[in-house]
Amino acid sequence: MKTSEIRNQFFDFFTDKGHTYVRSAPLVPKDDPTLLFINAGMNQFKNIFLEKEKPKHLRVVNSQKCIRVSGKHNDLEEVGIDTFHHTFFEMLGNWSFGDYYKAEAIQWAWELFTEVWGLEKDRLWATVYKDDDEADELWKKVTNIAPDRVLRFGKKDNFWEMGDTGPCGPCSEIHYYVGENPSKQSADGINSSDQYWELWNLVFIQNNRLPDGTLEELPKKHVDTGAGLERIAAVLQGKTSNYDTDLFQSIIKVQEKKLGVKYKDDLVGHRAIADHVRMLSFSIADGVLPSNEGRGYVARRILRRAARFGHCMGREEPFLSSLVGTVVELMSEEFPELVEKQTHIEKVIEAEEIGFSETLDRGLEQFGNIVNDLSGKTISGKEAFKLYDTFGFPVDLTVQMAREKGLSVDIEGFDKAMGEQRTKARSEGKFNLDVSHKEWTTITKGDDSEFLGYNDLSSESTIRRYHCTNGTVLMILDQTPFYGEQGGQVGDTGSLTGDGFTIRVTNTVIDGDSHIHVGEYAEGDSINGETVTAQVDNVRRENIKKNHTATHLLHKALKKVLGDHVQQAGSLVHPDYLRFDLTHYQKITPEELRKIEAIINSEILKNTVLDIS
Ligand code: SER
Asked: What is the best residue among 68, 129, 225, 232 to mutate for testing ligand 1's pocket, by most ligand atoms within 8 Å of CB?
């Protein structure tokens, strides 16, 4: 039976029991800052459990796309090495929102496994939470499992939590013995030997973990079950590795051709690549782009890990994007977003792989040198950091390569080197006049720097304080029309004229909430009196305004022509020009540039009144 049929049978079984089918939520969580990627079916239902949202249906069935490479559930190190961990996988689930509870969840799981799918009950084991007498008794009452096949485990195995906070509860797992000799089974193997696979987790959601670590009771009790489709497919297809199912073999066959290496000759490499290309296809389809932080960095790490496995098989050219078509073919019946985004996924992967291939060779050479010169068994944090910083090797890639050579990496040292670099970058990026440590001469006291510049370009202002050194004058006023440099827009210039002096303001910067006018004397050589007339150079400000608006027009036009994925990565708004950094997977073509230009020019010609409210 093909995996797609297994998935459909799961849906059919539960729709017959009154469940409504719902689609998988996207992999990128909506409004949940506690989570990088959706890592369990329950993420999209969290607010229902917390009673913040009413469920549309009390019983639901679905297959949720999950990624587990960060946070509480992180399986990356195992991926490729063993036969059943994945970065991306599908979690089949049936759900009760305050409707049925433990008895039905247990009974139906057993019925589906043993009666519909015909799994041998003498290979199945059930576990329950150590204090959950109810679940323990129910197993013996509503199923025909042998009583000595129901085991109790502690919090680590049988109390399920999504993350550090959120809905959670005791759970009951179903494990399956995949070994060759059923008479060799023993309770000791559950949760310890890889001959026993956890196939299904029935979670009885009844608590909420609060940020201070305490548990509160939820007003209602819910059922959240999760069954890894890839593992179930392996068992039902009589395989002892998920990678031997149709889901993976179809991809691996293409890999064998492209890479010229048989699966049996590089099990780990082939598995990792097939796994990673699925993760990349799905995450990119849901809007992730490889980058240096957050989700984007997870995608980048996975891609580089896969590219390096290909490289080890002797592949010099980028190849990952050519596998996407097979993933789309296999999975798009359930996940049509893949077809829609196929070209986009291929382009993103290709561009990223090309980028990495430029440093991969040199990085591998550097790694070789490090290993040759190594006296102990640990690669220092500094060396690992150099590989990261200069050659783009994510640290887990270095760890993986070290592991292959029986070595380890000093992760603490790596984190330290990374921290030092961040601090350095921060201090270099900061305004180079260290205004906060100046000794100021105070003229008047009170709040300062009320910003008038949205409406006025000049003002009568009171001097709060100033500082002069080597001809440079810094001055802070009670109110000012001068815009301080921030958000990529340059500061205003102009003049401050007081009793017997004029300061030519060459820049305005912000420190805390204060606008600091930076300039030099154009007339006079000392500050007299308490007030000045502050005048912004209005021609220059007009030009800055135009370029500011043009930045918005450009951003919009870029999205229109290149796609919604385009994000602003930085910008500079200057009176004479603007610069806009963006995220896109390839060089913009002359044709695209012409289109972008045409859109912006036609908007400018419309001369629409700006609504800045
Ligand atoms: N939330 C549970 C898990 O992820 C069951 O769906 O294992």
From this structure: 225
